Amino acid sequence: MTVHEDQTADSEGPAADDVLVVDGLSRRFGDLMAVDEVSFRIAPGETYGLLGPNGAGKTTTISMVAGLIRADAGTVRVAGQPMSPSHPQPKRHIGLVPQDLAIYPELSARENLVFFGRLQGMGGADLKGRVQEVLDLIGLADRAKDKSKNFSGGMKRRLNIGIGLLHEPHLLILDEPTVGVDPQSRNSILESVERLSTAGMAVLYTTHYMEEAERLCDRIGIIDTGRIQAEGTRDELIRLTGGVDQIRLAGTGDLPQAIESLRQLSAVEQVDHDGLALRLTVHDAPTAVAEIVTRATGAGMSLADVEITRPDLESVFLQLTGKALRD
Ligand SMILES: Nc1ncnc2c1ncn2[C@@H]1O[C@H](COP(=O)(O)OP(=O)(O)OP(=O)(O)O)[C@@H](O)[C@H]1O
Predict the structure, then answer these.
(1) What is the ipTM of this complex?
(2) What GO MF terms are annotated (predicted)?
(3) For residue 265, what are the domain limits?
(4) DSSP readout, 18-85?
(5) Which protein residues are within 6 Å of ligand 1, measured from CB?
(6) pTM for this prediction
(7) Is 295's pLDDT higher than 50?
(8) Residue 325 is assigned to a structural domain of this protein
(9) Which residue, by CA, sits nearest to atom 31 of ligand 1?
(10) In this structure, what CATH number is given to the domain that contains residue 151?
(11) Which residue of 33, 38, 59 sits with most ligand 1 atoms within 8 Å of its CB, as the best mutation to test the pocket?
């Protein structure tokens, strides 16, 4: 886990096979420091999330990583090679999926992929084979012949992702790919990203949706006002801000005996009695809850209700920045 500002950290150095190493990346627009010394790294098969609200600096960061805009300071290494305006070659290892759709509505899914593949200098049997692989990866093989103008929002986004995958990049960058799509389409996009990650792809994923970061990302950088405020796995970030799982047991019966018995469980840190219910502070509530219920009832408690409360990244963000993730 790496913690920035005044927090202490046990930061690990970059591994030799990291697909992406970003160090001290900064960019100013006039008086605004849009990205301020952003550093992170992504290993093969790892999904790294930049989680932050609108205007946090996510798009500016990935635009610099992808070589679309110049950085004022900092370095980017892709697949072990430094990248700069004078040395753009490592760009070929990056697949960028921008926020806006870049597909031709009158062309089918397959025709779009063939068109963009040719633009990238691909052709012949290689292109044909790769297009089929990509159609499978994005789950559009059975709609390959349909014009993309007839696709749902999520299918169009997946086709957009497919275009970014054609040249077999080592790193796929997705900029808020689910904004403006319905929940079902969102799920199919997330499943595609999960499939790619399982296949070994390194993914850089920007979002302001906490649920997506929690579901997809192995590590998350919480970004606000251009700075990464904290970085780690979901659980590390939650521990960092002192978040704990709680279980509330409402019921009647021999409560003192239940408290005594529950205090002996290693997962239980603390048991309080608020008059109406027992309130437990626990490690990993979803795993511990079955044993806790068994203990409480075994000790003579008759349960009326069991409620689990887990802190989430929204509360971490609030604590770190004093603001909500969404307006
Ligand atoms: N070309 C530009 N000129 C001036 N200001 C810019 C430019 N591009 C971005 N900004 C500003 O830089 C800040 C960071 O913007 P950026 O687009 O990187 O944020 P974001 O986290 O991607 O949010 P969003 O999802 O809204 O794009 C914002 O205040 C934005 O207004």
Answers:
(1) 0.96
(2) ATP binding; ATP hydrolysis activity
(3) 244-310
(4) -SEEEEEEEEEETTEEEEEEEEEEE-TT-EEEEE--TTSSHHHHHHHHTTSS--SEEEEEETTEEEBT
(5) 29, 32, 34, 52, 54-60, 176
(6) 0.82
(7) yes
(8) no
(9) 55
(10) 3.40.50.300
(11) 59
